[in-house]
Write a structure and sequence with these properties.
The chain has 969 residues and is mainly beta. The protein is 10% helix and 46% strand. It has 14 helices and 48 strands. The chain has a 22-stranded antiparallel beta barrel, surrounded by four helices. A five-stranded mixed beta sheet has the order 3-8-9-6-7. Strands 16-15-14-21-20 form a five-stranded antiparallel beta sheet, covered by helices on one side. It is globular, with a radius of gyration of 30 Å.
Length: 969
Amino acid sequence: MKHFIKSALLSNGAAATAIAVATLGLLTSFEAVAQDIAQAGAVEEEPATIIVTGSRIARPDLTSNSPISVISADTIKLSGATSVEDVLRDIPQAVPGIGGQTNNGNEGAATIDLRNLTEQRTLVLIDGKRFVPFNNDGVVDVNMIPAALIKRVDVVTGGASAVYGSDAVAGVVNFILDDEFKGFRADAQYGITSRGDARTFDASLTYGTSFNEGRGHIVVNGGYTKQAALSQGRRRFSEFALGQADLQPSGSLTDTPGNISDSFPTICSQADIDDGNCYAQFRPNGDLGPLVGSFNFNPYNLFQVPQERYQAHALLKYEFSDFARFFGRVSYIDTKVQTVLAPSGTFFFPFTVNLDNPFLSDQARSVLSPLDTDNDGNVDIAFGRRTTELGTRDSIYRNKALQFVGGLRGDITDSLNYEVFAQYGQVKRRQQYLNDIDFAKTQQGLLVRNVNGVPTCIDPSNGCVPVNLFGAGNLTPEAGQFIRLDLEANDKTTQFVAGGSLAGDLFTLPTATSAAGFAVGAEYRREKTVSRPDANLVAGNSPGFGSQSPIDAKYTVKELFAEIRVPLLEDMPFAQALTFEGGLRYSRYNSDVTNLVTGGTFANSFTNWTFKAGGEWEPIQGLRVRGLYQRAVRAPNLQELGEPRTSSTGDLESDPCAGANPVGNAALTQLCLDTGVPAGRIGTVNGPIAGQINNYIGGNPTLTPEKSDTFSIGLVLEPRQLPGFTASVDYFDIKVKNAITQFSEQVIVDACYEQEQDPNGFFCQLISRNPINGSLSGGTETGVDASTLNAASLKRTGIDFAAAYHFKIGEDARLQFGINATRAIKSVDQPAAIFPSYDCVGLVGKTCLRPQPKWQFVQNTQLDYGPISLLLRWRYIGKLTKDDIVLNGADPADYVVPVIGARSYFDLSGTVRVAERFQLRGGINNLFDKQPPIVGNDYGGTAENSGNTFPATYDPLGRSFFIGASVTF
């Protein structure tokens, strides 16, 4: 083929030990590492049982058989990040999801994508409990997590559904909050780049106190964050939209003068006509001439989206007795995120224009008249006119989240405990889309006749104002106001969870000294979403924002689970410890989807089992071998179940029917005609515009859960002969079957024209071409249907490395080193069984959308001297090759940058305790002001590749500074 088918966590907030740190936790600040080691020693002196992320069984040793990466609160502060996603984005176990550097494609949230398996396969928890999703796709906005209350973040990679249920396919991100904070703390931080822009500000107040002789404890927190916008026009490398082939200006053909796509022998050369690159461009006087230039949309787009966030949280616990200890949390978050796109336009939607329109010159009429094949005086044109007169397209996302969590836990006997809990959360979401054009009114305003010397709408209804889009500067303010369209959608997503569990000791084998532990329980979860876009969004009457469909969907799940941990051997030769662990979960789902477009309700139900089995072996003290096999699942989310077919925008590298591709190939020519290319347009069909085409997205109420199998095995080394040193290495293998997927547009197009070659085939039926020019760009009748279905297989393999070493220098100083690295071995996707698979490790482009280098690491060096700490962080991103070269045999000479070289970023930060209760911190990120790689704007996917680079992977801001202060009482 030419193109490849494209847990109750930590009861009482106990901290992770050096063992947890060694199992990938080297992102923590070294001060936290030292504290962890000290706490580990304290555990040995005064044993206590706690619950480790990845298990519900309390244990005394804090070890885990799943690799865990631990990020401390100090690490977050020393990074200068005002949002948690800024820190998580850099860990080598993840690839950048949607966040503050994503403009086109940002829904006003920040997400986490572990192992490049997408956000939907990463489960986000707060203190072991689910947090309410920000929208109907089940994804949590991590900007809603209270950074000021975070004690640490545990990142468990690999399946964990047997413990936590659906979605934990790639892993779990668990935010552990500090529910024992005492006193008052005020914190503030300000950031700015060396160019004086991209400002950030963050402030928080936290108060905690015990009451009723220490039986109760309450922590309250309030925070405010503001992030300023940074446009791509503020950086020289992104001032112009560049093409990947030559890095020369190459913008959009929807331009301010107005362009018509067709065959115009008096305007275009025969070569351009044959290649499907013929455009006639309006001049200010209404004449049509050859295409001159293109629209540079880059200066309008953003490298940093503006954001404003208010938060309030309260944590409460109260001990009635050993049998009944209450815990609870209330969280309220109000976020506002705004994205900005270049001004809207007609985007080659099909329009009808009457030839006696007074805004057309006689010359333009003569050029267009051959298109009037039925002699009715009207012509149908594919028209691209940028409406700069209306200003930028602004999307404003306002999310208001509220969650209540409450429960009781206690001891039934000395070796048996329980927990019961319930939680309710909701997110109300308002989406405003400003300064688009009304397609229907624009069409109405383009049908104009001269009445007594006055241009007049043929249809005067709706207060019609004649619209002159034929040439730059011809759209009057009155006409602009007539066609201006603001849109709105309002969503509400709710989540209710209730559950209970019993845990404790079972028995002690004669060969061991520790008792076997168990946990059993049940959970019930209900999620519901209602999405109400306005009538214009539903109708697809907005060329610049596309369409949205109303959604009314819900599901419930009832679950039973059990877990066991059995020490088999302890304190024996070559078996300091040998332990088995296993887990099992049964889930039953029921879903109901009401189609608000066509009517009717569809109900579905399914069941699944998840499990885990593994163990650990410590042959000698300081060396531990661990391994785990896990079955995980991901049930379809509410959007995947309930979204009707909706017009949108997708990516395409090439169209087999475009230009001269079908010329001379009788079979391909006939197939292009049979799939919608108008007769006579063979050889003149336009290809993708700036790498984009129209598509359709939508849900499927018959979807079933996807299943994954994860195998991991590793070593943890903590030699007594080298105090202060820990290291770990873990191999992981994740396979996902029956994966819920949206075929990429390139997959569908290639499958139709290169495999099926049948206009009635499944894939060919997913293609709807522009009825005027045969392209895949146009109105809502045009596009490639990329709706969801169960079809894909995914595989991820790799090796995680971690090491840390700290030692004293004299009496007052300490030097510490740490590294957290991942070697990705395979990142294989197979869209369906009939397609070949492709491996995206080390590749990036329109098939491999999110960059995933073979090697990636974060290395820390920290020096502590009295009240001063200095941290130097080295972030390394390995090289990446354009995917089309490896997957499809493209000529490297077709790209100015066929290979993106490895990049290193260095960050320097520090803290100084000025007084007992006052601490200053500051830092310089991207210390050497390294510019991101410049590859062009059409190198990769729309959301990932922007401003001629990949702004979520590489730093587009340049050198930046931050300074902060904390006062405690």
